[in-house]
Here is the input.
Amino acid sequence: MAWGCEEKDILLYPTIEESGNFNISTSGFDEMVVIPVSEINNAINDVSDGASINEVILEAIWVEITPKQGNTATKVSMDLSIQSWNTQEFINVVEGFEVSIGNEPSKVAIIQGLQQAGIDELKLQLNEIATGNGWQDVVFETEGVVTPPGGVINVDVEVFVRGTLVYAETI
Here is the structure.
């Protein structure tokens, strides 16, 4: 009986994680958050070793809030939108997302209030970048208000996106 080597493809599922940040220092805010396409491509290349990506599965979106000196605000309520590559219009990803602000940095997953159209656009953009068909940055707009009214806000906010890459490797 002869034993032979047979090639076969196995699917691999590494994750990538990228973020963009901004500072809130006014009680009503409207800020842009950019995740550069170069950073996403670098993360993809680090884990895929140049393999051809089949798809990216959106795993999570979250924010990290870091209070700075002088902050007296206790809560921030925000909307997060993504800029469409086709129309340049902003599409809601989440509306009315509230985060309590303590004295220490905190991470809060965005799991409620998600808007399907915005999630679909984010998935589309990540997949276009991963498959070599997207060359634009991922741009978010965030706007909102802080509590208590008249309170002093001074926090850094970082918006994170995590995705799972799906690709085949021949062994």
